[in-house]
Specification:
Layout: H1 3-12, H2 19-23, E1 32-33, E2 54-56, E3 72-76, E4 79-82, H3 83-98, E5 102-104, H4 105-131, H5 138-152, H6 155-164, H7 169-191, H8 198-207, E6 213-214, E7 217-225, H9 232-248, E8 261-269, H10 275-282, E9 293-295, E10 298-308, E11 311-312, H11 315-344, E12 348-350
Parallel strand pairs: 1-12
Antiparallel strand pairs: 2-5, 3-4, 3-12, 6-11, 7-8, 7-10, 9-10
Length: 358
């Protein structure tokens, strides 16, 4: 990916709630006209009974790259969406979601439709922002444009990359202008209205308090010998293995090759789970290998690997997290309602054959 593309992504999509959040959920709206064609599922697969052939994405005629960038492909409330905007947005979606994989022709059609939905939602949000009296600050636009140029390597490199994409500086200014206006309208109508009360925070915190508790954790490596503790030779065999662990395996029983015994590394024990192992480990130092132990009527060697004490997140910090989660849910709900409202009376028309399924 070029430095220009990365810069655009960084600057235009960096806000917490940019138009991308709106766009990717804006499918299946009644306002669409002239789309037609077979339905595809979320994976781009055709319904049973239809065939599909895998083809490299670059070989597919899905971008209309031979068309004029100024050619109109759709109208959103009589505002034009051009071939250039469609191509640029498709490139972003392909790079972010599909990479260079081989996909079906049906999925290629889906990408076209997905891109147009994105652009239509973006256009509706921008129109609403302007109608609501938002006027993007020209100084801020210039500042962000300068940042794009700097990240591209300077004015000359920036213009060179634009030429390679058959784009103009005005195209980039438009993208920045849209971003600023949409971000501001979302902040005004969605974010600022998603208030969270102290009562909501307290109630949710109490109901989910356990999520902010990290229980005590004792980690051991357990070597289990299937030997009769009543036989003298059994103890000698365990001691022999212990000496081998210390002298040959750098005190690491996990490196043993089981031979008449079993080795379990990374075993979590507690007062409720394997309490005898737990009690033995808590009496040891970290990294220590136990003497032969009799647990559950057989011999064991235990290495104490790690100990983590029980901890609970500070209540104020936990409630801050809870407030953020509640607000995030409210914002998503408000966004869904906002999208639906924008689409309700929208007039979206397909005017180019590239976006019509024949």
């Amino acid at each position: 990916m070029s430095s220009y593309t990365m810069t655009i992504k960084t600057i235009l999509l960096a806000a917490t709630f940019s138009w991308i959040i709106i766009i990717f959920s804006a499918s299946g709206c009644a306002a669409w006209k002239g789309m037609g064609g077979q339905a595809v599922d979320g994976h781009g697969s055709m319904p049973p009974g239809h065939s599909s052939s895998a083809t490299p994405l670059k070989d597919m005629s899905i971008t209309g790259h031979k068309e004029s960038r100024q050619q109109v492909v759709a109208l959103v409330n009589a505002h034009e969406i051009t071939m250039g905007r469609l191509m640029d947005s498709m490139r972003e979606i392909i790079m972010s979601k599909y990479g260079h994989q081989k996909i079906t022709r049906e999925l290629a059609r889906r990408i076209r439709h997905e891109t147009l939905e994105k652009l239509a939602m973006e256009e509706l949000a921008y129109q609403h922002a302007i109608q609501s009296g938002i006027v993007p600050d020209k100084k801020l636009i210039a500042k962000k444009l300068a940042a794009v140029k700097k990240s591209a390597g300077g004015e000359e490199a920036f213009l060179k990359e634009l030429a390679a994409k058959n784009k103009t500086e005005q195209d980039v200014e438009r993208e920045i202008t849209y971003f600023i206006a949409i971000k501001e309208i979302i902040d005004r109508e969605i974010n600022q209205g998603a208030e969270v009360s102290r009562e909501e925070i307290d109630k949710t915190y109490q109901a989910n308090r356990n999520q902010f508790i990290t229980p005590e954790r004792v980690v051991i490596t357990d070597v289990v010998f299937f030997l009769d503790p009543g036989q003298p030779e059994s103890l000698e065999k365990v001691k022999k293995v212990r000496r081998k662990i210390i002298s040959e395996l750098d005190n690491d029983p996990a490196r043993l090759h089981p031979d008449g015994f079993a080795v379990t590394a990374g075993l979590d024990v507690s007062p409720d789970y394997k309490p005898e192992h737990y009690n033995a480990a808590r009496a040891m130092k970290k990294g220590e290998l136990s003497q032969p132990l009799i647990i559950d009527d057989t011999f064991h060697l235990i290495k104490f690997v790690n100990y983590q004490a029980r901890s609970e997140k500070n209540e104020a910090e936990a409630k801050k997290i809870v407030a953020g989660k509640i607000k995030s849910i409210k914002i998503q709900q408000r966004l869904a309602q906002w999208r639906q409202k924008l689409m309700q009376d929208a007039d979206i028309q397909i005017v180019h054959d590239l976006l019509k399924d024949n």
